[in-house]
């Protein structure tokens, strides 16, 4: 996920070998009170005459890609568009790598070719995976779109890397069972420059579990991983070779230094207090390929902190934010902030935000940071009639609406263009990718 070039490049503060990889175009901005403008938010939402997306005055949207559109590789755009990242390809082009959260029973848009897994009897590729969209950076004209990963299950979220690739994560732990040929629950890497289907290599050292999202610390190369379960953990992967995840590494789970904690704050529990930073330690995990899907259970038994459905995660400068969709006393969602230390031995975690009412936010999911330094959070409500918003959250933890989706589906994959002028976001189903332009830097 990306942020503007005029507020520090993704790797500018590190001075490390990762600096040479900044061509990915991924920018990061800290949540900084100095970035705030007077007033809260961008103003009242204006009704959309098309009945699709209400936005503040001065903002407009356009549809970039839709379910069923013909792609340039002969396939069609699949459904269930979810997590997404934006990359600067150079030569005036940008790329969006987009997840599709498809199950084996879903339509995959006719994909054939390289695939991680196939239906055992028919050898038809499983429909999950990614598509890549290439746009003119100035006009946002779609120059091409194609399948870039196939044969996976339920690719929910993921994250960009400093070296210009997308980590796409399976939120499914199906086992090979005579209907499918492979075990699932892995992370895969998709270079943003790929012009077709990539070789599907599961990064097994990053663990087998219900993956949600990923974020890379450019200063260390450490990858932080969320898990979408009601009793999830927060993981970190320490690669053997920074920038080369396929070389393997170590997987750890976050624990609080002062003892085990249930951070969900359900039923009057107080495992997390807003504004209270707590020291962190990391628990080494073994048997990370977890054939019994018990990685989180073993981690919790060893003292790891428990979170309520970890989802979107975003790496800023020296701090990362992650959503817990159903956390909090109201069950409407939390956002935690982790501040890694240079040594890795003095990390601190605090509860940055906890929703107390649906007017703040209702089931936060994917998130990123806007050019003004505020969080941008996608809602994913679980109600019969939904009214999902894009929500902004200020550095002081005040929530406000940015957009209201009038269609009965979730918002996902929010990410900014490298120049910070455009927010790209997905409508889950029927799948659409839209571009929202406006005074994001105001």
From TrEMBL:
Signal peptide: 1-19
InterPro entries per record: PhoX, TAT_signal
The keyword Transmembrane is annotated on this UniProt entry: no
Xref: Pfam families: PhoX
Keywords of the record: Signal
Keyword Signal annotated: yes
PANTHER family to which the protein is assigned, alphabetical: MEMBRANE PROTEIN (PTHR35399:SF4), SLR8030 PROTEIN (PTHR35399)
Protein name according to UniProt: Phosphatase
Source organism of this protein record: Croceibacterium mercuriale
């Amino acid at each position: 996920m990306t942020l503007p070039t005029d507020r520090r490049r993704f790797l500018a503060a590190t001075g490390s070998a990762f600096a040479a990889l900044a061509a990915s175009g991924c920018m990061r901005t800290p949540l900084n009170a100095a970035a705030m403008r007077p007033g809260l938010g961008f103003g009242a939402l204006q009704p959309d005459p098309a009945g699709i997306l209400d936005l503040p005055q001065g903002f407009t949207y356009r549809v970039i890609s839709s379910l069923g559109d013909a792609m340039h590789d002969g396939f069609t755009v699949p459904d269930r568009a979810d997590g997404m990242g934006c990359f600067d390809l150079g030569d005036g082009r940008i790329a969006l790598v987009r997840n599709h959260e498809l199950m084996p029973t879903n339509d995959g848009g006719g994909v054939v070719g390289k695939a991680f897994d196939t239906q055992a009897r028919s050898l038809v590729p499983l429909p999950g995976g990614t598509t890549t969209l290439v746009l003119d950076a100035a006009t946002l004209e779609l120059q091409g779109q194609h399948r870039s990963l196939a044969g996976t299950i339920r690719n929910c979220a993921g994250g960009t890397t400093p070296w210009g690739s997308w980590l796409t994560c399976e939120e499914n732990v199906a086992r090979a069972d005579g209907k499918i040929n492979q075990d699932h629950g892995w992370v895969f890497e998709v270079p943003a420059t790929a012009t077709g289907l990539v070789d599907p290599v599961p990064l097994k050292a990053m663990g087998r579990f219900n993956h949600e999202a990923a974020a890379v610390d450019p200063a260390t190369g450490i990858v932080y991983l969320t898990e979408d379960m009601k009793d999830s953990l927060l993981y970190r992967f320490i690669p053997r070779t920074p920038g080369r995840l396929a070389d393997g590494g170590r997987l750890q789970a976050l624990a609080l230094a002062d003892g085990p904690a249930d951070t969900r704050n359900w039923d009057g529990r107080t495992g997390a207090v807003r504004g209270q930073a707590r020291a962190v330690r990391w628990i080494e995990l073994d048997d990370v390929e977890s054939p019994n899907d018990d990685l989180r259970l073993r981690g919790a038994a060893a003292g790891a902190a428990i979170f309520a459905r970890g989802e979107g995660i975003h790496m800023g400068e020296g701090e990362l934010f992650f959503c817990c969709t159903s956390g909090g006393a109201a069950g409407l969602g939390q956002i935690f902030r982790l501040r890694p230390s240079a040594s890795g031995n003095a990390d601190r975690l605090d509860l940055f935000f906890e929703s107390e009412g649906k007017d703040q936010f209702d089931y936060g999911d994917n998130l990123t940071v806007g050019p003004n330094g505020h969080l941008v959070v996608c809602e994913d409500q679980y109600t019969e009639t939904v009214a999902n918003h894009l929500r902004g959250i200020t550095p002081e933890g005040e929530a406000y609406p940015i957009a209201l989706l009038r269609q009965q589906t979730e918002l996902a994959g929010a990410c900014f263009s490298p120049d910070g002028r455009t927010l790209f976001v997905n409508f889950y189903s029927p799948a659409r990718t839209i571009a929202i332009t406006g005074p994001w830097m105001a």
